[in-house]
């Protein structure tokens, strides 16, 4: 049969038999020579057509070191003989079809050496020459991930760089994954051919940028512009797929990796939660971890952090002067909490909380280093504390149409908020939502801190310091074991709280939150019950209420030291007077009313002097006025019951444990 005539093409790659690869392989296998009467169209005009008949493969053909190195990089699993065979065939292929011919595939790249075992090299060569079309070759697993679905190019990813090899042209793309918009692809692009290269910064979605890159790169790397333009188009399609995948992954909420405890760690954590002196253990461990003194602050801070698991968590404000230790207290408490449950920031912008997304803060601790770092986010933080959810509407581009549309962003709570301040004047709306802890700045506390610093330099102190990591891990695991179970307070109906001022409504919620958090912390020491709907819960005990009363008195209460000496003297006289009336008439204190006349008669004080000090006691909420307007005489109720006589802090209106037990159990 007559062989088809050769045609001339402007591109070397197009120089191939019209009959296709199958006829080319048939001719090579038969070794037929071109008949003497074969002429091309040009030969009719007298021009001699060069003989472009393919030559049979020669396994002994020399191979350049650059070609062999590229084959080794692509197929590291092949043996030396197979790598050299692939290099020889690729070199012959480029000589026939053009220098832009990609590296040919090798059968079963991951196990090519096994595929070639027992086969003649000529058969392997024929298989390699079977299809000159580019075929996707998986990248070596050790270099980078394979391409996305539908990708027509092999590529590798090393760090933030993407590498693509097309023939002898190596492309490197840097900065692709910084683009989080579908409209922009700003990258640092480099193309290398041997020792020649061109590098530039451009937006690949900009046609002028691409054209400029190809125009300048072609003479520098000595490759035709058409080849570079085609390569760049293929690289662009690959990068677009990678960028879309990266944006989709970024928009997905990131789930924290669950920490898996070993059986030994779980047993130790469970033993801690079942310890009968658990509150004392917490205080002692915080001391070992480097925070000395201030037992109330340490326990209260730990409870506030634990309350993140409840639907109504406690919020904490730590207040002190500069360098007094407020940040040290916060860091010591947060170090005992699981890392995945703490979101700690130095500062927040005004809109930062709105864009945190989904359940990023749900049942976690939101800690801000200083109040100054959250001034712009104060409004959002108030809403998160109160409503336990944030929602904002903002303009944004529709990814499909590109038009501006209103998009809704929401963040689900609840979250326990921690922050500190050196200011004596704090935002009142934020402060009344938080439990305020005041760092002890006394001389005795300073001496205790200095003594601890000296102790840490001793051999025993070094050993204690090494125990801190173990204790922190122990408490973190214990916190992971705690469940956000419901808490039921069977004594709630009999509890009392001073409610003469509307602002005290939030204070009572803090008080009840302390009680519930103590019950939650002791859940492994209580029987788990179920309500009528089958929901599990644990119950509050009198021990929880007693400890909560003590903590509430310390952090929500006051001392008599805030009173002037004469005002404090009048308060003592009124306490003695009302106590006598209650005993004489067998009345409860809240039912007793006294007038100014009664007070003047019992104390012997003058009208003017008495008016001044009674007004002070009313302002400080030790007394409540029930009447006294429009000509009606003044009558007072005494809220003070003799608490804090030794200088201790107290909170007005709390029922004692003995009275609570009597009311609950009956006489």
As a whole number of angstroms, the C-alpha radius of gyration is 41 Å
**Which sheet architecture does the biggest sheet show?**
5 strands, antiparallel
What's the helical proportion of residues?
40-55%
By secondary-structure content and strand pairing, the structural class works out as alpha/beta
With strands numbered from the N-terminus, the spatial order across the biggest sheet is: 1-2-3-4-5
Strand content: 5-15%
Indicate the overall shape: elongated
Please, what is the average pLDDT?
A: 79
Number of strands: 18
Unreliable stretches, pLDDT < 50, 5 or more residues? 3-60, 107-151
What does this structure look like?
The chain has 667 residues and is of the alpha/beta class. The protein is 40% helix and 14% strand. The chain is built from 22 helices and 18 strands. Strands 1-2-3-4-5 form a five-stranded antiparallel beta sheet, with helices on one face. It has a five-stranded parallel beta sheet with strand order 7-8-11-6-12, with helices on both faces. It is elongated, with a radius of gyration of 41 Å. The N and C termini lie far apart (121 Å). Residues 3-60 and 107-151 have low confidence and may be disordered.
